[in-house]
Amino acid sequence: MKRLTILVFIILYALRSSAYTAPTDSTHQQSPSYLDTLQQQLTLTTNDSLKSGIYIQLAAQYLKYDGITDKKEKQGYQAQVLNYTYLALHIYSRYNDTTGMVTCFNNLATVYRSQKKYPQAKWFILQSNSLSRAKNDVPNIMASLIILANIKMEIKDYALAMSDLNEALKLSTTNHYPKVESRVQESYALLYSHLKDYTKEAIAEKRHNFIEDSISKGDEASLIAKIKSTDSLQNKKKVFTTTGRRIYKTNSSVKIASL
Q1: Which among 59, 116, 60, 65 has a CA at the least distance from the CA of 84?
Q2: In terms of CB atoms within 10 Å, which end of the chain has fewer, N or C?
Q3: How far apart are the C-alpha atoms of 46 and 54, rounded to whole Å?
Q4: Treating both helix axes as pointing N-terminal to C-terminal, what angle do 198-258 and 178-194 enclose, rounded to 10 degrees?
Q5: What are the distances in angstroms from CA 117 to CA 15, 20, 21, 51?
Q6: CA 181, CA 74: separation in Å to the nearest integer?
């Protein structure tokens, strides 16, 4: 882990010096009051674990840049994500907090992919995947494989993208993650589109839609069952309450008669 940490920061600061853009004060869709609250908390705390959590919350707010059309404003948001994520990563790495490091690696991969800086994006998502494997964190192994596959598609490394998706699919089906399996099928469709294999693209799309429909029906059935269970419980309570009142009234009548 020490070797990983040293390697991380050698690359981090090399990347940061060339890729970092000065943050802007724009808050676009974000709530200024919430951002102000986080900034205020940051100035009031000296605890590293609390600081790292606040950095990640700030980064999460600035990650919501997909809907921004102004190029300069979008770059400002991305710069804020990089800034706060690097600050958090410095703390997480110092305390060997692998969960926090994974979150940071995912953030950095997201931004660098958005900026089409694929070597950086690929490197960071590989670190996320590596740490997740060490922790046997199956959900993030699958998530990082899907992201990695999509990055490889964008750089036209289709064979390796297919390999990543195959592994993600196997993990999702073996461990019963239908929502992840649906995402994998969606990525397969994109891959086959790149490969101009439109028959397989259509099959992947159908599988994706079928899984989504099954999930939707399952959620609906689960909700209906929950409502029925709640109604049944409430009816039992009513019966119990009514019965209790009747018994009480009956006993009262007996007492009066005995008098």
Answers
A1: 59
A2: C
A3: 12
A4: 160
A5: 10, 12, 14, 28
A6: 31
Question: What is the C-alpha separation between 131 and 21, in angstroms, rounded?
Answer: 28
Q: What is the pLDDT of residues 180-202, one digit of tens each?
A: 999 999 999 999 999 999 999 99
Q: Which of 41, 68, 67 minimizes the C-alpha distance to 56?
A: 41
What secondary structure letter does DSSP report for 155?
T
- Per-residue pLDDT of 216-240, as tens digits, reads 887 777 767 767 766 666 666 665 5
Predicted TM-score of the model (pTM): 0.74
Distances in whole angstroms, Cα of residue 39 to Cα of each of 31, 54, 108:
12, 8, 21
CA 87 to chain CA mean position, Å: 20
- How far apart CA 146 and CA 152 sit, in angstroms, is 10
Alpha carbon distance 86, 20 (integer Å)? 11
Helix, strand, or coil (residue 69): coil
Count the Cβ atoms, other than its own, within 10 Å of residue 202. 13
Segment (H or E) for 124:
helix 118-135
Q: Kindly list the distances between the CA atom of residue 5 and the CA atoms of 9, 50, 89, 129, 232, in Å, as whole numbers in the listed order.
A: 6, 21, 10, 15, 56
CA pair distance 127, 8, nearest whole angstrom: 9
Question: Which amino acid appears at position 196 of this protein?
Answer: K
